[in-house]
Structures are given as structure tokens and as C-alpha cells.
Amino acid sequence: MISIQGLKKSFGSQEVIKNVDLEIEQGKVVVIIGPSGSGKSTLLRCLNVLETPNGGVLSIDGQKLDFNSAVSKKSISAFRRLTGMVFQSYNLFPHLTTTGNVTEGLTTVKGLSRKEAVKKAELLLDKVGLAEHKDKYSFQLSGGQQQRVAIARALAMDPKVMLFDEPTSALDPELVGEVLRVMKDLAHEGMTMAVVTHEMRFAKEVADEVIFIDQGVIVERGAPAEIFNYPKHERTKKFLSLLQV
Amino acid sequence: MYLNTIALSPERIQRFQEIASTSIGPLIEGAIKYTIPLAIIAFSIGLIIAIFTALARISSSKFLRAIARVYVSIIRGTPLLVQLFIIFYGLPTIGITIDPFPSAIIGFSLNVGAYASEIIRAAILSIPKGQWEAAYSIGMNYSQALRKIVLPQAARVSVPPLSNSFIGLVKDTSLAATILVAETFRRAQEIASMNYEFLFVYVMAALVYWVICFILSIIQGRIEIRLDRVVGKTGGLS
Fold first, then answer.
1. Is residue B156 less than 8 Å (CB to CB) from chain A?
2. Are A144 and A179 in contact (CB under 8 A)?
3. CB atoms within 10 A of CB B106
């Protein structure tokens, strides 16, 4: 489903991702953990080319992008459409209502009629439990509600894979649960997901695989029970002990 | 004796009343036929120039950035009056003759384009990077992200400074008097040169500008309240 081969990314002289290989099977939920600055967010952002890799081959659902040679903007846009992204800071469009946030991509990118788009938005907002907030602007919503709108916005584009970049890190603790619940539902429906998070409970309950990244390399990967209970590497042990899991 | 002739005698006051009633018509006509259209047309064209200039200035192309920078620098670094003279009195000497009104449109549009481009550039840059990223993440390309997500938000940010520019432009159009556009101030000059009541006539012209700008500032206030509501500064339910 997702295949990453020899992925490299540098910011200036600093190498943030060093030759990472990774496969994610269809319908699997992969949780990526690692210390701050380990490159975990960058890895995720390379997957939808918000960061342009300096080298390597990405492939999602049979579509390939080879960064060892020049890549056109058009092929990046097409590739990006396979993914949906949820950001730490929600990034809702503040000039649009909840419904507008969800329909914008449908009308502008997919060319749906306004009516079809609104219909689809209603289904999705219902799914994330925000049907009654469809006409509100983002400033009228709580963080948890905003993040659920962001999830609906991403889902509207029918992505093959959902990318979550610390989706609950900016939330007040009491609002984390409602977002995780929506993510769990998605996972149970068989969505392929890559999740960067510090929510270890979510990782234990939902992840098929946990990947520990440090200094731009995958240090260790395995089933959650394995990684959390029997970490093999010193760095993983140290990181997990700091998290007190 | 001399003092008496410039004093406000009853005869003089009556003369003022006559001048007021005969000249207010031409002054307002100048405003409606020239001052206001000139300001609106030049501002509209100028805004289009400004958007493209702003985009050029933040583009990744060195060439576009350089062109935009030179344009802005030339317009901002030279007096508007000199620009108008170059267009209207200068260009005919190389065979390009443009009528007064179109000359004024060109001059003011270029001027608005340069100044407003800085406002729009700042407004675009003030939109958080996350908005671009969110737009890209749902499959938009650069121009879609710009048109649908960034410019609508930048427009709200730039309304207050742009409306100030517009009010400034309304007043600047009086410079078109020097290139024979029969706008408010030129009418005033013509009237005053006939009756020699310079103070009275020019004050009347000033009042005409003031009324226009006063109305504009009320409209500006209304627009800002509405926009604030949409972007959530006031928190009012819409």
C-alpha cells in the first residue's frame, strides 16, 4: 500500500531523515513515536510531499514518486490526493464555515457541484459527531471540535491513507478523547493510517505496528506490545522510560 | 482703506452667497464626472496590478521579483505629480499622445498598484503557513490555494489599509487638475480665476473632498465591522 525506499531529507546541512525504508500494508495503523526533533513529523510530511524529499522513492497505492530525479508539480499534486492530512494545529480555514471547510476541496479540486458537496459534507460531519455545528466558524468551536472538522475535511477527498501529525498535542486533556475516538472508528473501518503521536494508550489499543524513530533513522519497529513491553534498543528503552509508559 | 476692501462687508457676504450658489454645481459635477470615477477606476486597475505585483514579489522567480521590485521602487521613489507630467506632457514628445483623463487613469493606477502591492504582500505573508499546507493537503495546487484560501483571508487583513489608500487616492486625484482633467479642483481654479475669491472657492472645493472622504470613512467602518464578524474578532454569531 505505502512503500518508502531510501527516503532522505535535509534542511540545509542538517540531515533529518537518513535513508528510511518503510512499508505499510493496506488497512494497517502505524504509530510513529520518537523524541522531539527525531524526524517523525518530517517523515510524515514527506509522505504527502509537504516537505520535498532530497532522495528516495515513495509509492502509495501503485502511484510512484521518484525523488532521485526531478518530480513535476503536477505529479506531486496527484500523489498528494491519495493522502489526507490532519495537523497538530488543525489549520481549519477560518473564513469558511464547518461545512465550507469540508466542501472546499470537493468543489475546487474534485469539481463536485455545491449540492453534492454539501450532501457529502453532511454525512462526514455526522460521522465525526458535528452535524449540529455545520454552520459555525472555527472560532466558535472547541479545539476537539475543530480537529474533528479537520478530519472530516481530509476524509472528504477519499484518501487512500490518512496521515495524522500529532493530532491531539494542541488539545486540552479533556478534549483528547473525542478526537481519538473518531480516529479509532476510522481504524476499525479499515482506513490505512500513519499517526505521529504521544498518546501511548492509543498506540497500544489501535496500532498494528509501532515505529520508533530517533535521529532520522528507524531504530526499532514491532507490535505495540513488543515495543512497549520488551524494547530491544537502549534508545527506545530510554525514550519510553521518559514517557513513563 | 485697503483693509476695508478685504473685510467681510454685507455686500461681500452677499457676493459669497451668489458665488456659492453658482459654483457648487460645477464643483459637484467635477466630483461626480471626474474625481469619483477617476478614483474608482484607477483603484480597481491598481488593485489588479497590486495583486500581480505582490505575487511576483513573493514568487520563487528571481526575474519576477526583480521586475516587481524595480516597479515599486520607481513609483514610490518619484513624485506622483512628476509621473503625471511625464505621461501627459512628456510622452507626446515621442509621439505618444494620451488624453487627460486616460493619462490620469494610467498615472494613478500605476501609483495605486505600487503602494497597494506592499499592503497585499504583507497581508498574504501574514496568513499562516499552515493555511497553505492545509490547502495543499486537500489536493489544491498553488493557484487554487491562493484564490480559495489565502487571498480571501488576506483581503480581510488588507481592507483597513486599502481603504485608507482609497481615501488618499480620492484626495490625490486633485493633482489631475494639472493635466487638464476637469475634476473638482480644476473647476475651483477656473471659478476662482474669474471672480478672484480664492479663499472662498478653494474652501468650497475642500468641503466637497471632505464630504466624499467622510462618507467613505463611514463605509470603511461598516465593512470592517462585518469582516471582523466573519474572521471572529468580535465573536458575534453570524
1. yes
2. yes
3. 18
CA distance B188 to B21: 13
Q: What is the DSSP string of A143-196?
A: HHHHHHHHHHHHHTT--SEEEEESTTTTS-HHHHHHHHHHHHHHHHTT-EEEEE
Chain A contact for B59 (CB, 8 A cutoff) = no
Nearest-CA distance A188 → chain B (Å): 23
Q: Enumerate the β-bridge partners of residue A10.
A: A15
**pLDDT score for A27:** 94
DSSP calls for A46-92: HHTTSS--SEEEEEETTEEEETTS---HHHHHHHHTTEEEE-TT---
β-pair type (A192-196, A29-33): parallel
pLDDT per position as a tens digit, A219-229: 999 999 999 99
Cell representation of residue A134 = 455545520
pLDDT computed for residue B2 by the predictor: 53
Q: Do A32 and A12 touch, CB atoms closer than 8 A?
A: no
Nearest to A1 by CA among A66, A81, A79, A59: A59
Question: Is the predicted pLDDT of residue B59 greater than 50, yes or no?
Answer: yes
Give the angle A225-A227-A230 at the CA atoms, nearest 5°. Answer: 85
Reported residue count of chain A is: 245
**Cell numbers standing for residue B173:** 486625484
Amino acid letter, residue B197: E
Task: Kindly provide the b/e burial profile for residues A143-170, where b requires at least 16 CB atoms within 10 angstroms of the residue's own CB.
Answer: bbbbbbbbbbbbbbbebbbbbbbbbbee
| Cβ density class B189-220: b for 16+ within 10 Å, e for less | bebbeeeebeebbeebbeebbeebbeebeeeb
Residue of chain A whose Cα is closest to the Cα of B152: A95
A161-165 β-sheet, strand order: A83-86, A161-165, A192-196, A29-33, A209-214, A217-222
d(CA B169, CA A230): 72
> Helix crossing, B184-195 with B198-231: angle to 10°?
160
Q: How close A158 gets to chain B, by Cα (Å)?
A: 10
C-alpha–C-alpha distance, residues B71 and B110, integer Å: 9
Would the CB atoms of B141 and A108 count as touching at under 8 Å?
A: no
Neighboring chain B residues of A85 at a CB cutoff of 8 Å: 133-134, 137
